[in-house]
Amino acid sequence: xxxxxxxxxxxxxxxxxxxxxxxxxxxxxxxxxxxxxxxxxxxxxxxxxxxxxxxxxxxxxxxxxxxxxxxxxxxxxxxxxxxxxxxxxxxxxxxxxxxxxxxxxxxxxxxxxxxxxxxxxxxxxxxxxxxxxxxxxxxxxxxxxxxxxxxxxxxxxxxxxxxxxxxxxxxxxxxxxxxxxxxxxxxxxxxxxxxxxxxxxxxxxxxxxxxxxxxxxxxxxxxxxxxxxxxxxxxxxxxxxxxxxxxxxxxxxxxxxxxxxxxxxxxxxxxxxxxxxxxxxxxxxxxxxxxxxxxxxxxxxxxxxxxxxxxxxxxxxxxxxxxxxxxxxxxxxxxxxxxxxxxxxxxxxxxxxxxxxxxxxxxxxxxxxxxxxxxxxxxxxxxxxxxxxxxxxxxxxxxxxxxxxxxxx
Length: 409
Ligand SMILES: *Cc1c(COP(=O)(O)O)cnc(C)c1O
Hints:
By secondary structure, the chain is an alpha/beta fold. The protein has two domains: 15-32 and 268-408, Aspartate Aminotransferase, domain 1, CATH 3.90.1150.10; 41-266, Aspartate Aminotransferase, domain 2. It is built from 16 helices and 16 strands. The protein has helices spanning 6-10, 41-54, 62-75, 86-96, 111-118, 138-144, 164-174, 225-235, 256-266, 269-286, 315-318, 322-331, 348-351, 360-366, 380-395, 397-408, and strands at 31-32, 79-83, 102-106, 123-127, 149-155, 177-181, 189-190, 193-194, 201-205, 218-222, 239-241, 244-245, 293-295, 309-313, 334-335, 369-372. Strand 5 (149-155), helix 7 and strand 6 (177-181) form a beta-alpha-beta unit. Helix 4 packs across helix 8. The longest helix has 18 residues, at 269-286. The two termini are 36 Å apart. Bound molecules: pyridoxal-5'-phosphate. The site of pyridoxal-5'-phosphate (PLP) has 14 residues, from helix 4 and helix 5. Residues 85-87, 109-110, 112-113, 155, 181, 183-184, 205, 207, 218 line the site of pyridoxal-5'-phosphate.
């Protein structure tokens, strides 16, 4: 248990007790965002033993097939091709879809979304987001389309959906391919249909920090038979049989142990969602009424994995900035994260050529958001402590900010 006893917690009466100003940290062990959700260890161990007994460690083994089958059942999508990670899944999907030239994507995403294009010498064209949903703004896309544009790579950020209806209509009307980076959105739905079956294809991530993990892993899901066949070939060097190579390919295979981890965690998925939702509701309740602090909401009418608890800090009201709040939390050993600051277009590999590019909504949001720890490794008492610190800081925003600046000098 990372939490210290309640007496210590209750003793944090004023801002002088904050660890950043010399007090004792609220936690003995650090609280991470994205600490892995781990299912039944016994089941996982017995599966690993079975894999070792068979000596079938990779190359489309029975656990990979079963994992793919379970994802198909869960999402209702016709085909699933699991991969070693989502970045390779994106690269394979991008290639199999025949994307070239320019592809429009949000800048407010994990850097892999952009890298997957640039790595193949396709120009990522960064688009602004809708400040409400934090996802790509379909109207802004329209203005970025050129004769070189071959597709749209939209991101279902935080497990919340883009305006998928508008994106599908736009892609259709302008003759563009539509790929979704749904790395965050496994187990989520849009208008009652599971994420996975939209656009030409979608990609999930099963990285350790994601809602459902296979340690490392990803998947391409699609209803397109030909695309599925193509991606399956590409995942395994283009081999169609022992010594026949039909296409260019890469090694994107998932190992059996990773698939066993994914399968095992899938069996605990409802539990993970219940815990995440409980955590989310607790944060919502304990941070309610705090001026300038809002929790990014989830559409309760849809299925949601509640994997991300994202705060938006309005500095005009809190006086204390997002970065200052983060600094205070870090001192307390709460490693809140400012995903996805400062936006891909401001990251070194891209900013040199994009000095004039301004994406106001992206820049504003990326300076306001803070992801808080959640998941199955956090107790309700931990969350109360985190909320207590946030309340203390925000309720004394002006003093905390001034004192932090004085300490820095
Ligand atoms: C994590 C993530 C990826 C990359 O996933 P990996 O499995 O780590 O390669 C891509 N896009 C987004 C939005 C992500 O959050």
